[in-house]
Structures are given as C-alpha cells and as structure tokens.
Write a structure and sequence with these properties.
With about 300 residues, this protein is α/β, with parallel strands linked by helices. About 35% of the residues lie in helices and about 20% in strands. It contains twelve helices and twelve strands. Strands 6-9-10-3-11-12 form a six-stranded mixed sheet. The protein has a four-stranded antiparallel sheet with strand order 2-1-4-5, with no helix packed on it. Strand 4 and strand 5 form a beta hairpin. The termini are far apart. Bound molecules: adenosine-5'-triphosphate. The site of adenosine-5'-triphosphate has 14 residues, from helix 3. Keywords: ATP-binding, Membrane, Nucleotide-binding, Transmembrane, Transmembrane helix. GO terms for molecular function: ATP binding.
Amino acid sequence: FLKPIEKINALLELYPRGMAGFARYCELMDTEPDVKDAPDAIVASRLRGDIAFERVTFGYENHSHVLKGVDLRVRAGETVALVGPSGAGKSTLCSLIPRFYEIDDGSITIDGIDIRHMTQHSLRSQIGIVQQDVFLFNGTIRENIVYGRLGSTEEEIWDAARKASLEQMLKALPEGLDTFIGERGLKLSGGQRQRLSIARIFLKNPPILILDEATSALDTETESLIQQALEELSHNRTTLIIAHRLATIRHADRIIVVTEEGIEEDGTHEELIVAGGAYARLHGAQFAGTTVPLPV
Ligand code: ATP
C-alpha cells in the first residue's frame, strides 16, 4: 500500500510537470523509468555544483536530436541565463542535469563526477527546481514548506519564509503558518504559490538551482518580491535560469543563447552586446522601447 504513495511523492518532487515535457504522471506510474541507478552508483555527498556538459547529444524517443554535441561549463556558484527561441532546447538541457532523461552521447559531470555514477536520489536532492507550475498539497502552509526538508525546526521554517518574502503574508493571517491552503482553506495566488515553493527550496538548501522563469505576467509588486527571493536563493549556488524576460538576465554572470543549431552565443551581457549578435539585437530592440518578448 505504501509503495505507490512513496512513488507518487517521489514523482511529484522529482518530475515537475512544466519542464521539458516530463513524462506524464500516468505513464510514469505504469512503466518503469528509463533512467536507472547503476548497480555500483555512489551516494554523492554535498556537491559544490561545478557542472560540465561534454559533447552531449540527446533526443527524445522517436525524435531527432534536440541537443547535438553540446559543450557547456557552469562553474560552482555561477548564475547562467539561457535564452533562445521556443523549442531550441533550453528546458531539455536543464532537465538532463537531474538526469530526468538519459543522454545518447557525451557526458555530464558535476564536480568531475559523471551523474550516471551517482544514485538519482543523491543527485536530485542537490538540485532545487523553481517553476511556474508549483505542486502544493492540501494541508497547512507549514506542512507545505517543511516538505523541503522534513524535520526542520520552527526557526528554520520562519527563516525560509522570511527569505522567500512570505513573512508579511503570514503575519496577516490569523493562523499564520497553520493556515490551511488548497480546497480546504486559503486560495493562494500564483505569486504566493511560487514564493512558498521558494521557501521549500531554502529549507532544502541545494547547491544547484534551476529556475524556469514564469511566462505569465505577475503584478509588479509580486514580481519584485519573487525576484528578490530568487536572487537571495541563487546566492552561493550554481544557478541556471531559463529566461523569458530580459530583466532576469541582468543579474546573470553569463548569458547563453541556445538555438536549434546549439549554443550560439556565450558571454557576459557586455560581451554579447559588443559581439552584436542575437542577444545584442534583442537588447537593442528593448532599449529602443519596443517590447520584444523572449525567446528571441
Ligand atoms: P520554450 O522556450 O518554449 O520552453 P525550449 O527552448 O525550452 O522551449 P524544449 O522544451 O527543451 O525547448 O524543447 C526542445 C524540443 O524538444 C522541441 O522541439 C520540443 O517539441 C521537443 N520536446 C520537448 N519535450 C519533449 C518530450 N517530452 N518528448 C518529445 N519531444 C519533446
């Protein structure tokens, strides 16, 4: 009886729906996952988060290759923004880091260790994923936050809530952290749900972060609260941002332009402006006051 529940829990945590068309829940329930732990897989201790793709080739089953021989290095603690046309493979590239899919060729290492040599659990416990489609269950705010790390203390939960810009909201609720959410209680807005998921990740405290930026518009205040929380969250962590708007990119150490041909540009904001390529055109258009939505 417990097995399927454990499986559901693991899936909800590890296979968020929004990213790169993660295999659908039902499919996963019915079939064995393609990605399996190697018999001699190691339990990775805390990683620093130095990520290296070497000649990585990947295609979804029955589809031609989405990524062909991609080389990419993201150093520990670095923030890298991925921009590019829809369908170029930004989400796919990110979903290979937690090993949601098996690559066809090349290798992905973290701190020099091939991710295929780590247990999936120990790998994924070091990666936090923030995306638009937040999974919350019917329960209290406290239960939903503590899901990030079961057994967290009251102080740790409040600290995470504060860093995720949730404190003000919690103080305005008569039952605070013990307020029920979902069908049985408070209906949270999209921005509040996202901040709650950010609080969870503060508790989880992973060395690697993947941020799949919201495409839907949030009001300015919510937007700035989330930006603030995300900046704090990405501090001292290796962060990959799948960016849809230029505002987020300003804080990135590097910007990578992904197109169907592969990684077309890679550099700092200043370098890419000087290079005068795709990113510079996009930026120029925005600077001129024209609203050009990402992807380019
Ligand atoms: P967007 O900016 O729209 O999110 P993206 O750059 O993140 O796009 P991906 O979502 O990685 O692009 O998709 C890359 C290619 O892989 C696309 O052609 C897409 O249709 C295909 N694709 C994505 N997920 C799957 C899947 N689960 N099965 C088959 N093909 C997929």
